[in-house]
């Protein structure tokens, strides 16, 4: 980096390398946005089906999300930064529940995953740093966060339902 040209070449090669390293993630995020957009547009067409399946009580829905919160693990259908983006889009698109209720409702299971999912980089780093086995982390963390999720979903109902 003795001159501007060398620095520019170094910066360009670093950017090219880093983008190629995360190309799969970028494509996943682009597909996720397209998928959730399509899901929200089609949710209106499926509204009668969802209206028949989904509970109409905010309390029942909140408790169901608390009980099913582990479905957010590994970017599952309740993780809003994973497959749960489509779940959020569909629930919002049906218009059965207001978005002020749906946001915290969906965010609680996501917090379970962010806290205890072994695919989260900070959890992997922490486990490696503390020399804790991922199996032990899951056995202790998931049940605790599951209970916390049920309590938090009850609070979501209390404050937003």
UniProtKB/TrEMBL annotation:
<keyword id="KW-1133">Transmembrane helix</keyword>
<feature type="transmembrane region" description="Helical">
    <location>
        <begin position="80"/>
        <end position="98"/>
    </location>
</feature>
<feature type="transmembrane region" description="Helical">
    <location>
        <begin position="137"/>
        <end position="160"/>
    </location>
</feature>
<feature type="transmembrane region" description="Helical">
    <location>
        <begin position="21"/>
        <end position="41"/>
    </location>
</feature>
<keyword id="KW-0812">Transmembrane</keyword>
<protein>
    <submittedName>
        <fullName>Citrate transporter</fullName>
    </submittedName>
</protein>
<feature type="transmembrane region" description="Helical">
    <location>
        <begin position="53"/>
        <end position="73"/>
    </location>
</feature>
<keyword id="KW-0472">Membrane</keyword>
């Amino acid at each position: 980096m003795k001159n501007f040209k060398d620095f520019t070449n170094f910066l360009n090669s670093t950017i090219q390398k880093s983008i190629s390293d995360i190309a799969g993630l970028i494509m996943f995020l682009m597909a996720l946005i397209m998928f959730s957009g399509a899901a929200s547009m089609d949710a209106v067409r499926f509204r009668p089906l969802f209206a028949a399946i989904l509970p109409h009580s905010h309390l029942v829905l909140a408790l169901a999300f608390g009980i099913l919160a582990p479905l957010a693990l590994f970017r599952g259908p309740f993780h809003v930064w994973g497959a749960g983006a489509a779940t959020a889009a569909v629930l919002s698109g049906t218009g059965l529940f207001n978005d002020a209720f749906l946001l915290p409702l969906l965010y609680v299971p996501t917090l379970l995953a962010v806290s205890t999912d072994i695919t989260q980089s900070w959890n992997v780093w922490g486990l490696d740093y503390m020399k804790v086995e991922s199996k032990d982390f899951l056995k202790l963390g998931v049940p605790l966060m599951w209970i916390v999720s049920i309590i938090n979903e009850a609070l979501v109902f209390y404050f937003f339902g």
